[in-house]
């Protein structure tokens, strides 16, 4: 798995050096930083600009690349044992998933399940999460409705963000002992109808001006912060 960009590379270097298999650099760096790469004991490759752009597929690599060992999903059983998890129902955009993971980790969410999908760009979501997904249990589930039923059986209260939900301000905060799964749908489709029928509570974010909807990663931050504060 290849990741690129200075921030994520330095995060891995500092927090997960054992995941690094190879280093790729396309710019000169100071001796102090280069010595940190040397301490990894891994092969360091020098790339010209053309090869660097090809490796990043046109992304903003800033001259830093790492090849990491394969990203492992957490077992679904592990997430069912948690208290406050986030379920992304049909959210597929790599940037949104990464941004949500970054916010969720910062605000103390226990884990994330991406549902209604079968595959995902692992390197993309790790990169856009700025490394948060290396520290936050994450897995995928192919069917959201089945997952909702499994979480109910595991003792979770299901809360979903919908346009017709109760104003978030009218809902109390989540206690640490509560088992809650917060469902967020994609911006285009929202939460799938079969999941919506299983929700214990629908919440929404009251907006001061008429507008279609918030970006799902922005909505996630608002919802998590208000439910946990």
TrEMBL record:
GO terms for biological process: methylation; RNA processing. The keyword Metal-binding does not apply. This is Putative TrmH family tRNA/rRNA methyltransferase. Its EC number is 2.1.1.-. GO terms for cellular component: cytosol. Residues 2-74 form the RNA 2-O ribose methyltransferase substrate binding domain. It holds the Pfam family SpoU_sub_bind. InterPro entries: Alpha/beta_knot_MTases, Ribosomal_eL30-like_sf, rRNA_MeTrfase_TrmH, SpoU_MeTrfase, SpoU_subst-bd, tRNA_m1G_MTases_N. It is an enzyme of class 2 (transferase). The keyword Nuclease does not apply. GO terms for molecular function: RNA binding; RNA methyltransferase activity. CDD domains: SpoU-like_rRNA-MTase. NCBIfam families: rRNA_methyl_3 (TIGR00186). PANTHER family: 23S RRNA (GUANOSINE-2'-O-)-METHYLTRANSFERASE RLMB. It comes from bioreactor metagenome. Keywords: Methyltransferase, Transferase.
């Amino acid at each position: 798995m290849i990741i690129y960009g200075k921030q994520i590379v330095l995060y891995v270097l500092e927090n997960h050096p054992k995941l690094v298999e190879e280093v790729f650099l396309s710019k000169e760096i100071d001796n102090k930083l280069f010595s940190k790469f040397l301490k990894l004991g891994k092969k360091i490759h020098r790339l010209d600009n053309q090869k660097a752009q090809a490796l990043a597929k046109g992304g903003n690599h800033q001259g830093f690349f790492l090849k990491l060992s394969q990203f492992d999903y957490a077992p679904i059983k592990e997430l069912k044992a948690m208290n406050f998890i986030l379920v992304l129902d049909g959210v597929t955009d790599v940037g949104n998933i990464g941004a949500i993971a970054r916010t969720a980790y910062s605000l103390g969410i226990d884990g994330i399940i991406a549902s209604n999908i079968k595959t995902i760009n692992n390197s993309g979501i790790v990169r856009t999460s700025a490394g948060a997904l290396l520290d936050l249990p994450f897995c995928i589930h192919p069917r959201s409705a089945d997952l909702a039923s499994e979480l109910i059986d595991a003792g979770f209260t299901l809360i979903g963000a919908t346009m017709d939900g109760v104003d978030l301000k009218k809902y109390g905060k989540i206690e640490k002992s509560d088992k809650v799964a917060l469902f967020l749908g994609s911006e285009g489709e929202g939460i799938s109808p079969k999941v919506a029928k299983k929700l214990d509570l629908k919440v929404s974010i009251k907006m001061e001006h008429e507008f279609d909807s918030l970006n799902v990663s922005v909505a996630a931050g608002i919802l998590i912060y208000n439910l946990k504060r």
